[in-house]
């Protein structure tokens, strides 16, 4: 117990001694844990409300509809639906109900509407859940689908103009029989109509655009149609085996415009959840990328600290600390930070999730649904601890093994020798010679820098490609949920860039500390401060350039792995611009620490090694 | 009359201010002729190393003038000072300051590469210098594989890489045993005979005795100056004592 207390006190004191480094560590790991939390709580966030709505509203397994021939104007035949309801697989059904295409006006806005005529009494299949007001009472009142009402600002008790007539909104309701507005399925003829891929321009019937759903009395539905022959019909079917819904629909693919169109519930489920599933894929991928970057951050930070902390390790050992104690203190510091980062990430992720998953009130549940499960808490904590332990293990063991005398003398860790690199650098200009030799001293740090930049640029390129595809989709189909997906992409990209920037500055500083003696000697031998500063900066730019090139190639592969759809690769000039941007950004980030290091007085440093 | 290579007038370096003011170098006047070997002796903290750093352009004086090879250097920019160190001055440090990741020959050729010489010319010069200091066979070794004396000989070879007009040695034998000290002493003797100008800071009387002139320093100022003439009290005597 006493030993644990000692380790905790030493770790705590050291963290307090270097608050800026502790804050950077916390930031790096928290970025990863927050994103991971978001990705994990997104799981089932859309699926759960849909299933809940489906169960509560006796949702159909298949929605069947018929509509007039859009070209010839031939009327729809509800008998087709009646006949379908008698199929062997059907356990229960409701309908056919008439559907009229019309418009609704409210608050100066006009929107197309598909008005479904429903009886006042509940149906066996599809009983929309009223969330505000009441269901149809047999009078002139109407019930508006919740997402549509939300978009138009309609509430129960309002008066709206439906098909030119003023009607009262009796209630607001949700249903599992249709994707919430604005992605609602078309029960009537909607744009765009295509035949063999060609748009049909001359229509025999009125064509609606992105219609909302309103439930009205059956007689009102009939009267809303300009002509009874313009009516469409819908039936809601429950099968003996709900899992057979897709097969049921596949066996009855319509051969002509007068045949019934079937939409099985998995298709609606797919429509309802695809944006959340995309967001979850983006978040989980982002979380892994940020996790890898966090490992690089912690490893570079710990390595940098070790360059500055050798004497402390020596003191600890000189007063009787065993190698195990030294390693335990270092590990404890970062484990402590990781635990705080895990908690911060869980809280931040939990609080942010509703902002990303908040959906129009089209289903039961929604904004409040994302919740932290024990599995999520365990996963996030394990990842945070994993990041800390993986990144700290090697420096901790190295510190534990350092000779006490060498550590007390603050002897620099012996550099690596890469012979071919030294020979090659002799042929290069002085600044590049210094850069190559500085980088060659610490191959592990260079590898971390390359990995860090590869991950960052891969993420940026994948996000750029995803964003371009998203913008294309938004141009043709504006959807606030898609815009939120764009926001998620932007947040992850900015976080990746910020972490990479932190890594670059920290790696530069660690390098500056590591080469302080050899820098002083190089200057004593005649290198100018400008040559040394350029060399130190270039030592970071060279691995960053390599990482950017690898990341440019890896980005499309990453995007391809995340998005199973056809991937549109970003244009080549984007990739070139990203590589150039990385080189410029890393140069800018490293110029200040490199210049500061190159202008340090030489004499005290050369005498310092004798201390 | 021989040419003056190094000249300082009223050279001063202070640290701190008020009551905590420390005069590390206090109004030093020094003239060193071409080909001369000058030894500066004094107790630890008397300002010997600071003086060496000032005349070598590693540090800047608080006041006074420094002239090197006929050029005033105490007001040069950092960049010009770096070029001066590259071409006109060679340093030998007590702690050697060799780069552990570079081989012996790579360490010796480094100043020439920094001066912009071709890799081939730099390597040829380094090889020649290593032969001169008797370490040609160790060219491919790493410094960690050498003895202290051998490392200091490598450092001397490195200091000569760009044929400097002045070599400054800061306690060159401070980390060496007697045998290694003798090695280095013989090397300095050869340099002296070849006409190389040397300023050696040391607290070792045996090393100081090998110089043409011995300057004693205390509290940042010169307190005594002796011109040595060789013989039993000079260079040969020192070598005899070490060999004995």
From TrEMBL, chain A:
InterPro entries in alphabetical order: ABC3_permease_C, Macrolide_Exporter_MacB
UniProt main location, coarse: membrane
Domain ABC3 transporter permease C-terminal: 287-403, 491-599
Superkingdom of source: Bacteria
Pfam families: FtsX
Any one annotated GO CC term: plasma membrane
Transmembrane segments: 282-302, 338-356, 377-398, 446-468, 488-512, 532-552, 572-592
Keywords, alphabetical: Cell membrane, Membrane, Transmembrane, Transmembrane helix
Keyword flag Thylakoid: no
Membrane topology of this protein: Multi-pass membrane protein
GO molecular function, one term: transmembrane transporter activity
KW Magnesium (keyword) present: no
Localization per record: Cell membrane
Assigned protein family: Belongs to the ABC-4 integral membrane protein family.
PANTHER family for the chain: ABC TRANSPORTER PERMEASE YTRF (PTHR30572:SF4), MEMBRANE COMPONENT OF TRANSPORTER-RELATED (PTHR30572)
Descriptive protein name: ABC transporter permease
Lineage start: Bacteria, Bacillati, Actinomycetota, Actinomycetes, Jiangellales
């Amino acid at each position: 117990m006493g030993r644990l207390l000692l380790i905790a006190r030493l770790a705590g004191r050291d963290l307090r001694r270097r608050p800026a480094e502790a804050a950077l560590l916390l930031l790096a790991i928290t970025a990863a844990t927050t994103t991971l939390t978001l990705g994990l709580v997104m799981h089932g966030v859309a699926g759960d409300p849909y299933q809940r709505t489906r169960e509560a509203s006796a949702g159909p397994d298949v929605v069947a509809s018929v509509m007039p021939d859009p070209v010839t104007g031939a009327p729809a035949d509800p008998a087709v639906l009646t006949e379908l309801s008698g199929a062997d697989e059907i356990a229960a059904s409701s309908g056919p109900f008439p559907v009229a295409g019309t418009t609704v006006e409210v608050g100066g806005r006009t929107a197309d509407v598909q008005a479904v005529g429903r009886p006042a009494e509940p149906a066996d299949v599809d009983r929309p859940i009223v969330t505000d007001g009441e269901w149809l009472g047999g009078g002139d009142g109407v019930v508006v689908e919740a997402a549509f009402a939300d978009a138009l600002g309609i509430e129960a008790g309002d008066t709206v103009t439906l098909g030119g007539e003023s009607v009262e909104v009796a209630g607001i309701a949700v249903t599992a029989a249709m994707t919430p507005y604005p992605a609602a399925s078309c029960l009537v003829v909607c744009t765009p109509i295509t035949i063999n891929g060609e748009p049909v321009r001359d229509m025999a019937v009125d064509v609606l655009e992105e219609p909302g759903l309103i439930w009205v009395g059956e007689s009102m539905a009939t009267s809303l149609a300009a002509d009874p022959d313009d009516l469409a019909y819908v039936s809601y079917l429950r099968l003996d085996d709900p899992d057979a819904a897709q097969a049921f629909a596949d066996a009855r693919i319509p051969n002509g415009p007068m045949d019934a169109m079937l939409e099985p519930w998995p298709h609606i489920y797919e429509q309802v959840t695809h944006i959340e599933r995309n967001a979850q894929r983006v978040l989980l991928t982002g979380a892994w990328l940020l996790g890898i970057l966090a490992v690089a951050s912690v490893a570079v930070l710990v390595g940098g600290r070790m360059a500055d902390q050798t004497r402390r390790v020596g003191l600890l050992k000189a007063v009787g600390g065993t190698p195990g104690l030294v390693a335990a203190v270092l590990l404890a510091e970062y484990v402590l930070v990781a635990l705080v980062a895990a908690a911060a990430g869980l809280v931040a992720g939990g609080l942010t999730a509703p902002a990303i998953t908040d959906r129009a009130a089209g289903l039961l549940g929604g904004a409040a649904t994302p919740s932290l499960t024990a599995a999520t808490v365990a996963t996030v904590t394990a990842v945070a601890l994993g990041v800390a332990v993986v990144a700290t293990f090697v420096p901790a063991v190295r510190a534990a093994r350092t000779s006490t005398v060498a550590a007390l003398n603050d002897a620099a860790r012996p550099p690596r020798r890469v012979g071919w690199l030294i020979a090659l650098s002799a042929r290069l200009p002085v600044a590049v010679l210094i850069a190559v030799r500085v980088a060659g001293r610490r191959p592990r740090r260079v590898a971390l820098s390359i990995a860090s930049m590869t991950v960052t640029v891969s993420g940026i390129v994948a996000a750029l490609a995803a964003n371009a595809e998203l913008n294309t989709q938004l141009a043709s189909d504006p959807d606030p949920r898609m815009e939120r997906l764009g926001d998620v992409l932007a947040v992850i990209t900015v976080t990746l860039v910020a972490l990479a920037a932190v890594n670059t500055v920290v790696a530069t500083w660690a390098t500056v500390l590591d080469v302080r003696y050899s820098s002083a000697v190089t200057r004593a031998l005649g290198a100018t401060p400008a040559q040394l500063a350029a060399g130190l900066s270039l030592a970071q730019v060279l691995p960053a350039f390599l990482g950017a090139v690898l990341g440019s190639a890896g980005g499309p592969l990453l995007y391809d792995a995340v998005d199973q759809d056809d991937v549109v690769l970003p244009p080549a000039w984007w990739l070139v611009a990203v590589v150039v941007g990385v080189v410029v950004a890393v140069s800018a980030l490293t110029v200040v620490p490199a210049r500061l290091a190159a202008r340090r007085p030489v004499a005290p440093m050369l005498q310092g090694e004798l201390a | 009359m021989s040419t003056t290579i190094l000249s300082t007038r009223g050279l001063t370096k202070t640290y701190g201010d008020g009551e905590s003011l420390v005069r590390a170098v206090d109004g030093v006047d020094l003239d060193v002729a071409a080909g001369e070997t000058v030894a500066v002796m004094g107790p630890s903290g008397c300002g010997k190393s600071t003086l060496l750093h000032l005349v070598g352009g590693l540090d800047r004086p608080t006041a006074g003038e420094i002239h090197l090879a006929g050029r005033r250097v105490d007001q040069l920019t950092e960049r010009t000072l770096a070029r001066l160190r590259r071409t006109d001055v060679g340093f030998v440090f007590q702690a050697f300051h060799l780069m552990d990741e570079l081989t012996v020959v790579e360490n010796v050729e480094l100043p020439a590469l920094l001066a912009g010489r071709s890799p081939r010319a730099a390597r040829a010069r380094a090889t020649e210098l290593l032969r001169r200091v008797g370490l040609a066979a160790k060219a491919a070794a790493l410094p960690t594989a050498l003895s202290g004396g051998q490392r200091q000989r490598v450092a001397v070879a490195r200091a000569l890489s760009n044929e400097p007009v002045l070599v400054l040695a800061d306690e060159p034998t401070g980390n060496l045993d007697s045998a290694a000290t003798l090695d280095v002493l013989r090397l300095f003797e050869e340099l002296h005979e070849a006409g190389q100008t040397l300023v050696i800071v040391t607290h070792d009387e045996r090393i100081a005795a090998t110089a043409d002139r011995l300057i004693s320093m205390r509290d940042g100022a010169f307190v005594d100056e002796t011109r040595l003439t060789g013989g039993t009290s000079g260079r040969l005597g020192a070598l005899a004592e070490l060999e004995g």
